[in-house]
Every structure is written in C-alpha cells, then in structure tokens.
C-alpha cells in the first residue's frame, strides 16, 4: 500500500512537476496546474481526473480506496485512501492526472 512519501516520490518523478502548498497542505503542480494534493485528512490524496465519468468509474471500482465528499460534487477529482492503493496503482493515477492537467508545453517535451 502507499504512503505520503510514495506520493511525493512518484509525483516529483513526472516531467515538470513541483511541490508547492495549497490550502495549507502539500500539493503537486505541472506548471501552473495542480494535479494532486494531500488533504487535511492523513493518508488521503486528492487526484484530478480528466472528467466526471473517469471519477465515477474509480468510485465504483473500489469504494474502499476511492471516495469523494459533497464538497467535490461536480468536480472531476477523487479522494484516494493511500493505505488501500498499491504504489503501482498510485503511479498510474498520478500519471493520468498529469496527462489531464499538464500544460501542452510539458506534454510535448
């Protein structure tokens, strides 16, 4: 299963990703766009999806690992419980978030 250290290592391995702070928690940006951030709840990561359909697919895939709150209704993101997701799956999720959020100049490199 994954840890916050895994998040940091995997996110920072993606092209052009930097760690900054958002809402008082560590967040990961590709250029000006946030792709993921650790939320106030320990062991939970907010990850952007390309669209609401992708988010819904994850929520149905494994409700123990993927969740949301009413605050994120209508937003293409999902909360990931790190202790329920292997590092390989976390790497996929972060790469997909990078694909969805990274500016074209980074994707074209």
Quick summary:
This protein is of the alpha+beta class.
Would you write up a description of this structure?
The chain is an alpha+beta fold and 109 residues long. The chain has one domain: Aspartate Aminotransferase, domain 1, CATH 3.90.1150.30. It contains four helices and six strands. The protein has helices at 4-12, 52-61, 87-101, 104-107; strands spanning 17-22, 25-30, 33-38, 44-48, 66-67, 77-81. A six-stranded antiparallel β-sheet has the order 1-2-3-4-6-5. A hairpin with a 5-residue loop joins strand 3 and strand 4 (44-48). Helix 1 (4-12) crosses helix 3. It is globular and about 35 Å long. The termini are far apart.
- Going by CATH, the architecture would be Alpha-Beta Complex
What name is given to the CATH topology?
A: Aspartate Aminotransferase, domain 1
Report the portion of residues in β strands.
25-35%
Biggest β-sheet: count, sense, barrel?
6 strands, antiparallel
Strands, helices and their partners?
Elements: H1 4-12, E1 17-22, E2 25-30, E3 33-38, E4 44-48, H2 52-61, E5 66-67, E6 77-81, H3 87-101, H4 104-107
Provide the descriptors you would attach to this structure in a database record.
single chain; 109 residues; alpha+beta; Aspartate Aminotransferase, domain 1; 4 helices; 6 strands
């Amino acid at each position: 299963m994954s840890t916050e250290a895994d998040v940091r290592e995997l996110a920072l391995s993606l092209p052009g990703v930097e760690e900054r702070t958002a809402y008082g928690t560590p967040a990961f940006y590709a250029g000006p766009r946030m792709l993921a951030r650790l939320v106030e709840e320990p062991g939970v990561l907010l990850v952007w999806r390309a669209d609401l359909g992708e988010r819904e697919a994850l929520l149905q895939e494994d409700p123990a690992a993927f969740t949301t709150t009413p605050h994120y209704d209508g937003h293409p993101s999902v909360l990931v419980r790190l202790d329920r997701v292997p590092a390989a799956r976390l790497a996929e999720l972060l790469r997909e978030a990078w694909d969805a959020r990274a500016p074209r100049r980074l994707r074209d490199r």
